[in-house]
Design a protein that fits this description.
By secondary structure, this protein is of the alpha+beta class. The chain has eight helices and twelve strands. It folds into two domains: 10-76, 434 Repressor (Amino-terminal Domain), CATH 1.10.260.40; 116-266, Umud Fragment, subunit A (Ribbon). The strands form three sheets. An eight-stranded mixed beta sheet has the order 4-6-7-12-8-9-10-11. A two-stranded antiparallel ribbon has the order 1-2. The chain has a two-stranded antiparallel sheet with strand order 3-5. Helix 2 crosses helix 3 and helix 4 (52-61) runs antiparallel to helix 5 (64-73). The longest helix is centred in the first third of the chain and has 13 residues, at 10-22. The chain is globular.
């Protein structure tokens, strides 16, 4: 029986993709990173994860569409970057907006004033408790299509994505097959207690849950309390991907009057209890 090849972690695949895009070999990447070619080889085989410093260096070498994947792996968040840039001449020239680059070359910042904005529906699944979601970064998942929604629904449209939900632990609030809107600009833990979030770790992938603090412990809980909560111990490997803004039963048109009512209720942001 032929042994199955183990699946590489997303960061390993992204490093190889970046190196091939630069059209350089492992030795040349090692020279630019000031490390050994063996280290690059171990990264690409998934045997050794880069340090935060190395992730920042990788982001600096990567294309605009890929850089944020590496910077986020280093722990840098877009909202933190905005805070660091405030008061700089570049930030003032941009009107107080930090831009996220898109793979198609277009870019625009939060609150662009448009009547409608195009939000990508990603080719991925976010799971509820008991199931595994997609294990890729939101920034590397392709879109199946884009959905036009009112700009007021998305405070940070360039950081908002649509994801279908799989699982039942969030029912009856969010059902299997519903589509959620996730704002990855809002990912700071201290601002999200009590909110619905998408979190992720390497084993479970993207996961939908309430983010709560019980005493001194952070937990991820489902709507259905028959499912055990996930305790975020240190170090647990879990990170907050973003805040859930709203959700609908269909990305294009609700199928019934009840669904239209649900869309109306949630379009300004579904608030956690």
């Amino acid at each position: 029986m032929r042994r199955l090849k183990p699946q590489l972690p997303e960061w390993a695949l992204q490093i190889t993709t970046m190196r091939e895009h630069l059209e350089i070999n492992q030795a040349e990447l090692a020279r630019r990173m000031a490390c050994s070619a063996m280290t690059i080889s171990r990264w690409e085989r998934g045997l050794l994860q880069p340090s935060a410093e190395h992730y920042i260096q990788l982001g600096n070498l990567a294309s605009k569409s890929q850089a944020w994947f590496f910077w986020e792996e280093a722990g840098i968040q877009p909202s933190k970057m905005v805070g660091a840039l405030r008061g700089t001449s570049e930030f003032r020239k941009s009107g107080g907006v930090i831009q996220k680059h898109r793979s198609d070359g277009a870019s625009k910042g939060p609150n662009n004033g448009s009547v409608n904005v195009a939000v990508p529906l990603l080719k991925a699944v976010v799971a509820t408790h008991g199931l595994e979601g997609d294990k890729r970064s939101l920034r590397t998942i392709p879109a199946t299509e884009t959905i036009s929604v009112p700009a007021r629904w998305c405070p940070n449209p360039d950081y908002t994505s649509l994801l279908p939900v799989r699982g039942h632990s969030m029912e009856p609030l969010i059902r299997d097959g519903d589509v959620i809107a996730v704002d990855s600009f809002q990912a700071e833990r201290e601002n999200l207690y009590g909110a619905l979030v998408v979190a992720a770790d390497q084993k479970q992938g993207l996961s939908l849950a309430y983010f709560r603090r019980i005493g001194t412990v952070d937990v991820l809980e489902g709507e259905n309390r028959a499912y055990e909560p996930v305790i975020l111990r240190k170090p647990s490997g879990w990170r907050i991907v973003g805040k859930v803004l709203w959700w609908i039963s269909s990305p294009i048109a609700p199928a019934s009057a009840r669904d239209r009512e649900r869309t109306h209720d949630f379009k300004l942001g579904a608030k956690a209890r």
